[in-house]
C-alpha cells in the first residue's frame, strides 16, 4: 500500500530550483518505465496503450481517467470509449511542446482528481508515453492538493515511475511552486488571532 505524507520540512528555507537542477533531479538514477505505475495512493500514470486496454483498466480498478493528450490529432478515447465501464473521463487537449501552456489545466485537473479520490476512486492520468504531459498534471496535483513542493512531488513520483516533463512544463511547474510557497509563507507570517 502506498502512503505518502509531506512534512513540509524545508519550506521555510526552500527555494524553487532552477530548470537545470530540476532536469538533473529528473535524470539521475533513471530506470526503465512500464506502461503504467501507481505513483500515489489510487493515482496512476500511464501511457496510451494502458488507456486503451479495458482489461488492464478493469484489473487496476480504474474509475476515473484524465487524458492529457485528448483531441482529434492525439489520443481519441473520450467518455464514449469508456461508456461500458462507467469510467468518468476528463480530457485535456495538450500538446507535448514547450510552448504549450498547460497551467490553465492544473486546477481543473486537480479538482477532478480530488473528487475521484474522495469518492474512493482510482485515477489514471495518461498521455502518449506517460512521461511529460500526464506527469506534469500529477506533479501539479501533488503540489496543490497534497502540499508538496515541486522537489518533493518529483521525488515522490520518481520512487515509482521515471517521468520527465518538457522544459516548458517544468517552467510552469516552477512558477506554480513559487506561487504556492509564497502563499504558504504569507499564511505562516500572518498574525495569529488572539484567543
UniProtKB/TrEMBL annotation:
A single GO BP: negative regulation of MAPK cascade
Its keywords, alphabetically, are:
Hydrolase, Protein phosphatase
What the protein does comes down to: Dual specificity phosphatase able to dephosphorylate phosphotyrosine, phosphoserine and phosphothreonine residues, with a preference for phosphotyrosine as a substrate.
Which EC main class describes this enzyme? hydrolase
Q: Which InterPro entries match?
A: Atypical_DUSP_subfamA, Dual-sp_phosphatase_cat-dom, Prot-tyrosine_phosphatase-like, Tyr_Pase_AS, Tyr_Pase_dom, TYR_PHOSPHATASE_DUAL_dom
Tell whether Cell membrane is among the UniProt keywords.
no
Family, per entry: Belongs to the protein-tyrosine phosphatase family. Non-receptor class dual specificity subfamily.
Q: E.C. number, please? A: 3.1.3.16, 3.1.3.48
Which sites are catalytic? 127 (phosphocysteine intermediate)
Q: Where is the Tyrosine-protein phosphatase domain?
A: 34-182
- Name of the protein in its database record: Dual specificity protein phosphatase
Query: Which GO-annotated molecular functions does the record name?
Result: MAP kinase phosphatase activity; protein serine/threonine phosphatase activity; protein tyrosine phosphatase activity; protein tyrosine/serine/threonine phosphatase activity
GO cellular component entries: cytoplasm
Q: Which PROSITE patterns match?
A: TYR_PHOSPHATASE_1, TYR_PHOSPHATASE_2, TYR_PHOSPHATASE_DUAL
Domain Tyrosine specific protein phosphatases residue range list: 104-161
Q: Which reaction does it catalyse?
A: O-phospho-L-threonyl-[protein] + H2O = L-threonyl-[protein] + phosphate; O-phospho-L-tyrosyl-[protein] + H2O = L-tyrosyl-[protein] + phosphate; O-phospho-L-seryl-[protein] + H2O = L-seryl-[protein] + phosphate
Task: List the taxonomic lineage.
Answer: Eukaryota, Metazoa, Chordata, Craniata, Vertebrata
Amino acid at each position: 500500500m502506498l502512503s505518502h505524507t509531506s512534512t513540509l520540512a524545508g519550506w521555510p528555507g526552500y527555494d524553487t530550483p532552477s530548470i537545470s537542477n530540476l532536469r538533473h533531479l529528473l535524470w539521475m538514477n533513471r530506470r526503465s518505465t512500464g506502461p503504467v505505475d501507481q505513483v500515489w495512493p489510487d493515482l496512476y500514470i500511464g501511457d496510451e496503450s494502458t488507456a486503451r486496454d479495458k482489461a488492464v483498466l478493469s484489473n487496476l480498478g480504474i474509475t476515473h481517467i484524465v487524458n492529457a493528450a485528448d483531441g482529434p490529432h492525439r489520443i481519441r478515447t473520450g467518455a464514449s470509449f469508456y461508456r461500458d465501464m462507467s469510467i468518468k473521463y476528463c480530457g485535456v487537449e495538450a500538446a507535448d511542446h514547450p510552448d504549450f501552456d498547460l497551467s490553465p489545466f492544473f486546477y481543473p485537473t486537480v479538482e477532478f482528481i480530488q473528487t475521484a479520490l474522495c469518492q474512493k476512486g482510482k485515477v489514471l492520468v495518461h498521455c502518449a508515453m506517460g512521461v511529460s504531459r500526464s506527469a506534469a498534471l500529477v506533479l501539479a496535483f501533488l503540489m496543490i492538493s497534497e502540499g508538496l513542493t515541486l522537489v518533493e512531488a518529483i521525488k515522490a513520483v520518481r520512487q515509482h515511475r521515471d517521468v520527465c516533463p518538457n522544459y516548458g512544463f517544468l517552467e510552469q511547474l516552477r512558477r506554480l511552486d513559487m506561487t504556492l510557497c509564497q502563499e504558504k509563507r504569507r499564511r505562516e507570517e500572518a498574525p495569529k488571532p488572539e484567543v
